[in-house]
Design a protein that fits this description.
Layout: H1 2-18, H2 30-40, H3 45-58, H4 62-67, H5 70-77, H6 84-99, H7 108-111, H8 119-130, H9 139-148, H10 158-171, H11 177-190, H12 209-212, E1 230-240, E2 243-248, E3 259-260, E4 263-265, H13 272-283, E5 287-289, E6 298-303, E7 308-320, H14 322-331, E8 334-337, H15 349-364
Parallel strand pairs: 1-7
Antiparallel strand pairs: 1-2, 1-4, 2-3, 2-8, 5-7, 6-7
The structure holds iron/sulfur cluster.
Iron/sulfur cluster (SF4) binds near residues 147, 192, 204, 208 and 211.
Length: about 375
């Protein structure tokens, strides 16, 4: 079809002139490309660049990653969120080392069997690192195709996804998948942006249905979002001689293996008092608390993908129970840590917000 060949031609010539020189674009190393693709899921490119460099600096080869303790990977990942990605990278690296002689497979179907690699990431690695003729379909590609081809159905619906994948497959120039895939994604990131697409400078404006029909800002269709629930958490900053008590989250759950201040979610009609009582029960064998004040010191908000939390922070002085603590130290479940010595401990994003609030409080009091 003429419009498909025009789309390809104009897009590729625009990409040659206009693409950003990102560090993962100057390599064909499958390991580096895999890391970049996982990092960029749910992460902005500018943020991704510094993490990519730091990550490869710390774990330059697949073998380094497979042999590293998960703590050190989470520590490099700290601040990026969606920590399941880091744990899946680690698991996949171990599988690749043990079952694939440390080599990354080129076939998308095989890649998809590894933890943390879905259809998009598999297609990206197979095409960019191995020149396989497979088309990627991420948020940027979806947006560009919905607009350019005037697709007005819900892009999340399985049948629309099939239509979009079919279209992307047909557009893909055989033997040039690495460049083409990156070009469509780059167009979505730089020109055909979610809000205010820059149609006047777009290389495919002459064949774009959304541009011709003034629909660019209305596509792709966005079905109304369900409101996410709000949960209230009470958190205790328990201090003994300048150190705070930290708890390590269950390695298997949400934010698994990260450290945070002890806290509980309020249930039903529970108020701060009940919450503080439950925290006291939780840490009672580790520390004798001198007080848990009635009123929280301050609150912070933190948003996850499926819920939002309001965190009420309570300051309390305590007296450590040394015998119990040594067992928890060995099991890495609780630890007293001075706020200036937190660097080796990967913290949850919410905990970093709480610590900033505590710092600010001290500064305001001149402490
Ligand atoms: Fe997107 Fe506008 Fe280009 Fe169409 S012309 S692909 S809507 S930027």
């Amino acid at each position: 079809m003429k419009s498909r060949s025009l789309f390809r031609k104009r897009l590729l010539s625009w990409y040659r002139e206009s693409h950003r020189p990102l560090p993962w674009r100057s390599t064909r190393d499958p390991y580096s490309i895999w890391i970049s693709e996982v990092l960029l899921q749910q992460t902005r490119v500018n943020t991704g660049v510094s993490y990519y460099e730091r990550f490869l600096d710390r774990f330059p080869t697949l073998s380094d990653l497979a042999e590293a303790p998960i703590e050190s990977i989470l520590q490099v990942w700290q601040g990026l969120g969606y920590y399941g990605r880091a744990r899946n990278l680690h698991r996949a690296a171990r599988i690749l080392k043990e079952e694939f002689r440390g080599e990354i497979p080129a076939e998308p179907e095989v890649l998809e069997r590894l933890p943390g690699i879905g259809p998009y990431t598999a297609a990206a690695i197979a095409s960019i690192a191995f020149d396989k003729d497979v088309a990627v379909l991420d948020g940027n590609v979806t947006r560009v195709l919905c607009r350019a081809y005037g697709i007005e159905d819900d892009p999340k619906h399985p049948s629309t996804r099939r239509t979009l994948q079919g279209l992307a497959d047909k557009l893909l120039p055989k033997g040039n998948a690495a460049i083409f895939n990156q070009a469509v994604m780059e167009l979505g990131a730089l020109v055909c942006k979610p809000a205010r697409p820059e149609c006047p400078v777009c290389p495919v404006k002459g064949i774009c249905v959304a541009h011709a029909t003034n629909m660019a800002e209305r596509l792709p269709l966005r079905p109304p979002r369900a409101r996410i629930p709000l949960r209230v958490r009470v958190v205790a900053a328990i201090e003994v001689r300048g150190r705070l008590l930290f708890k390590r989250r269950d390695p298997e759950g949400l934010l698994g293996g990260l450290w945070e201040l002890p806290g509980v979610y309020l249930e039903g009609r529970e108020g701060n008092k009940e919450g503080c009582r439950r925290i006291r029960k939780q840490v009672g064998s580790l520390v004798t608390l001198q007080c848990i004040p009635e009123r929280s010191q301050f609150s912070v908000k933190h948003v996850y993908s499926h819920f939002e939390e309001s965190i009420r922070v309570f300051l309390c002085k305590g007296k450590s129970v040394a015998k119990e603590m040594s067992r928890h130290r060995a099991e890495q479940t609780y630890r007293w840590i001075h706020p200036t010595r937190l660097a080796p401990y990967p913290l949850t994003g919410a905990t970093r917000k709480v610590l900033r609030g505590l710092e600010q409080g001290k500064a305001e009091q001149g402490g």
